[in-house]
Batch of 4 targets.
Target 1
Amino acid sequence: MADQLLSTGPPRRTLPESYIRPESQRPRLTAVESDANIPVIDLSTDDLSQIMSQIRDACQYYGFFQIVNHGMPTGLMVEMKAIAREFFSLPPEEKAKLYSDDPAKKIRLSTSFNIRKETVRNWRDYLRLHCYPLEDFVPVWPSKPPSFREVVSTYCREVRQLGFRLLGLISLSLGLEEDYIEKVLGEQEQHMAINYYPQCPEPELTYGLQAHTDPNALTILLQDQKVAGLQVLKDDKWIRVDPRPNALVINIGDQLQALSNGRYKSVWHRAVVNSDKERISVASFLCPCNGAVISPAMKLTGEGSPAIYRSFTYDEYYKKFWSRNLDQEHCLELFKR
Ligand SMILES: O=C(O)CCC(=O)C(=O)O
């Protein structure tokens, strides 16, 4: 029910019981390290071999990197975040029309992660949209604010193009043909999560989004420029991914970990909240088509590196992912040979 949303109603003064994590699962914010080592890759560099080696290192050791000079118009990124903010300030009755806690729904405004499964909630509302093909979905997207459909569909087109460029570079960086990954993933679906993390009265007791890996192939995240919140796990330590001017954050999803036979990492990441500022983020997910058969690339397996994962369809994987809660083992563990 729509009254579950955090973005309706007045700001809370105390954290409701249902959001409080047990002591051992809290974010321990003071132990989080700065992001000094998260790679930042300039995509405008002429030297392709340099870009590829940076991507290779980033995907192997971090599973995350930031990109700058990526070609996405700065004005569009600003507009996308502005429309996201406007959306979450719509009157409750508008938002109620879109509310659903059914993860199978392709257009839904929801809260936390999967309230049907979880025992403790996350301090987040989100609008989840299917985005490809645009002509199928735009007519059923929210019609308010008035420029929502136009801004978001323009952003989706740009993000898709950028995502394909990155998939080509990732393929090459693995020693595969440039179009290898694109061919395996088939006619890719594209989903979006527009995340809204309100100010939180007790951020040290809860998460905006608890640790998870992404079930898809590649994620492109547009972050709030002023408010940090994303953290990545590296060597058992949480590292902050600080927003950089006009940068986008890229992370490898579970499908690329499987396809690369574990060379590239789909790493745990989480979003934390803070007490004085709300935060917006926009995650775009490139996903294999449902029937795509994912398995480690032959070229990356053989003597000394046997295939770690069995073949599976994305449909099988995605259903498994959403049937579980986030605080379980890496979903790929269930697809090991
Ligand atoms: O808000 C963020 O920084 C992370 C969002 C995220 O991980 C997601 O939407 O899956």
Note: The CA atoms of residues 37 and 239 lie 9 Å apart.
Target 2
Amino acid sequence: MQIRIADCPPEGLHMEDRLDPGSLKDLAALQESERCLFKGPLSVALTVTPTAEMFAVEGRIRGEVTLACSRCLAPAECPIKISFKLTFSRGIPGDEPDAPSETRQLQSEEMGVVLFEGDEIDFRNVIQEQVIMAIPMRPLCREDCQGLCPRCGADLNHETCDCQKKEVDPRLAVLKKFKFDA
Ligand SMILES: [Zn+2]
Ligand SMILES: [Zn+2]
């Protein structure tokens, strides 16, 4: 997903595409780590509107990933639904063209501006950044997942174990002791 600046009409343009996550470097690396599997392509819709020297971009990304449930490790299907608004610019207002590129990068991030060079804007980096930020940190296979028993590792969604029963409430233990002594 990229545009040639010269092809962007004054009224802006809208584009939609389906992107293979494997074709985006960082997402491909995530898939290879096997912690995150994309189900099919990502649907991406972008609206690009030129404003003075900048381009306002509104984007929507839809997809689905399979992750390991953070409680029981079973596959967790997680929808990806992203809406974002960014401004692409060759420079930032009050920018010093001679400033080191790291400084310019920091300044632009603070202002929510994505810098680009040349005659084309490539949206793929932004798309994969947005997807990575949207991947849940603590996915669940279902809202009420019971998780694994911390003692024996039994999957409490499918079986029960005796760990809870064996564990005697310390307050009860004290009572028992009293009874014994009496
Ligand atoms: Zn689970
Ligand atoms: Zn157990």
Note: The helical segments are 25-32, 101-110, 124-134, 163-166, 170-181.
Target 3
Amino acid sequence: MYSTLISNIQGSQAARNSSSRLGEKLKRSLRRTKFGFSSISEHLKHAFILLLGFTAHAFGAGLSSYPHLVVADSAGTSRNGVRVTYLGTNGYQFEFKGHALLVDPYFSRVDLFSVGLGARIQPNISHITDAMRHLASREPNVDAILVTHGHFDHLLDVPIVMATTRARLIASASSVELAKRAGALSGEAVKPGDVRRIGPWKIRVLPATHDRLFGKVPFDRPQSRVPQRAADWICGEPLAFLIELNGQRIYIDSGGTLAQLPPNQKVDLAILGMALPDSRERLSAALERLQPRYILPSHQDNFFVPLSNGFQFGPLTDFRRVQRDCARENRGRLILMDYFRPWTLPTPGNPKSQNTNPKQKTKS
Ligand SMILES: [Zn+2]
């Protein structure tokens, strides 16, 4: 029934062009549906998220406003360093000498209505296949998949990506449990303080927190069933990772709060989730600790639309503020990345290995 409902909503071009009419539709839809919402306020919250998403869909800006910040390899780029490919949402591939690591690979891009209405969600095989084709063209051997937490936009596709790549999963105990319930055959539960050496990678597991949405961490109530709805993909214990190889360090998280800052450890690249206000609140303090050479704000795209639509900023992001804070802290170069356009992290003291625009200025 909900598929008819969702296609009714999505299929209407008029609704895409009028938020007030969409609001009416949503109210009617919500009255008709029974997807296990516990209260009226829950309905309102979801309707609000849906409306925000709609607004972003109509007006969402992409990377074209910031060409001076976007980095990517060109034909002349030296490939000696670690190559970083952005996969959308908080997903990355790191490559080094035929080895690869994946972090939070998520390609299905479940639509906002299915999430907001509590519909059954599942991996989109054709989206995953398309994305993996992008990555497989470079034939790296994927050593491991690191997952920062169990939400659907980080973990939903992992069992299928594991089956495709035969890579091992490294995640919190609850994320491993969820992945297994969703079909993964194995998984290695880690906790903050753990260190794993896999191939050329040294991976330090760090504590992290998750941004709040409407005052609380979304989807954090444990379930004991096979995950079906977005709410079943619970956060669990959020993790960050410090990845070391080739004399370089990459820090990656998917967001955070002031309650848990990154370590006092200089890094070459800091990938910091910036989807929600909490993570932006901690940005200055995080930069002070990490003193990164490069700052890549992450989880900023609207992950409710397919990757093929191209990068659009998400409804709750505020990139101008991120720019202002980075300029004020002046602790590294702010960069952006587009989907599936690899960039080799320049080794220190070798500026020629980067394809950068020397005219970059951080606007304030
Ligand atoms: Zn999350």
Note: Residues 3-354 form a domain with the Metallo-beta-lactamase; Chain A fold (CATH 3.60.15.10).
Target 4
Amino acid sequence: MRSVAIYYSEAQGRLPDICLRCGKPAVCRVEKTIRLHDLAPMHGRGVLTLIRLAADLRRHFRSATLVLQAPFCAAHRRHWAVRRAIVWAIAALTLFSVLAFWLLRAANVMGDTPAAALTVAVGTLGLVTAAIIIGTSTAKHACNNDAHTFVLHCVHPLFVRALEDRRQQRG
Ligand SMILES: [Zn+2]
């Protein structure tokens, strides 16, 4: 899978009819709102980093948006909807695990054995890890590198080739 820069002018209806995920012919366009200021990777820790992160988040949610009309095949048309549902499910399960942990503790069910607490902790850690994996590995988010393009990640190479061919034809 590859990352590719998309021109703003291409995002709305001028992308090749190739599925972003698998490279097969696309049958539909799925609209996705892209925020044109993406979060910069944060290095270091401490209060200063937190303040920088907060400022960056604020810029992210105030940034201009663009509606991407993304080509997908029939099998992948629900790609983004499914991913969103999974992330929400994991978030809900994680919250549930934490609640269960506190309830069990409050009810003194666990006694002195840390086994139950450990189970819940490990489960929560697993869920959070899964959320991070899903959020990063199949993400197709934008990041602004200049004022004309945004970057799509995890795109199929055939889509990239079709896009490059199209650009060459247009000169
Ligand atoms: Zn596909």
Note: The first strand starts at residue 2 and ends at 7.
